[in-house]
Amino acid sequence: AGEITVLGAKESATADSITVDGGEDNTVTLSDDFSSDNFTNVGGQSGWGVSGGTMAWTTHRSTTHQGEYRALPSTVTGDFVLRFKLTNTTIAYDSSQEEYLYIGLSNSNSCASNTNQNVAGMYFHNYSSSDSKIQVTYRTNTSPFSGTATSIDFGENTTYYVEISKSDDTVTLKLFSDEDYSTLMSGGSASSTSGGASDQYTHIVLMGMYHSNAGSTRALGTIDDIKFYNGVSSVRKGFTAKKHLMIQYKGIRSGDMI
Q1: Is the pLDDT of residue 210 over 90?
Q2: Confidence (pLDDT) at 5
Q3: Global pTM value
Q4: What is the rounded CA–CA span in Å between residue 62 and residue 99?
Q5: What percent of the chain lies above the pLDDT cut of 70?
Q6: What gap in Å lies between CA 105 and CA 165, rounded to an integer?
């Protein structure tokens, strides 16, 4: 007598394959592939908006607040993971005109870069080729544009798979080169403890830079495939295998005592 167990399987006995290590990804709280527009525009500036299945963004400096936001399903007060695909199509530097792009969580939907707010996310300083690192920012009731830099430059015609995670009082930015978020780019990680563990967030925000003097240069790109996980600080992913590869047998040999 004995029993056969398929390790980690949640599928039916007739399924052709099983998912190993407990099953699918952590439950996604919010996802957006931009097949439709679920964000709200602020400022009406050109360079922003959903088209062709992606969200366009720009760092163009403006005398009005500008960006896009989407409300989270509920207020976030603890750990989380935010993932998205970030592609830069055009980089234009002008060392006389600073520009910024912020992507992450906020407790405000104003997209107002000069307004104090809670932020946990990433930003890019479009200023010069020697000052163009992707940075993590984690701030309480202040400007979003201050953080800790990775070693990764914001390169033209480059795609990054971005992961921003919060664990207690630490926010970590990781930049991956693949859509499975398995290959970390060299130097592509940085953390900050400048915010507060109990800070609240209500929106996913893409925010450009407000300035009293409008700029003439800009970086352009797109964002896609947002996934937000609330209440976790990391994302566990299973893998798929044929059932005969993961069989555990428990039996009693003939003559053994039970």
Answers
A1: no
A2: 47
A3: 0.80
A4: 9
A5: 71
A6: 11
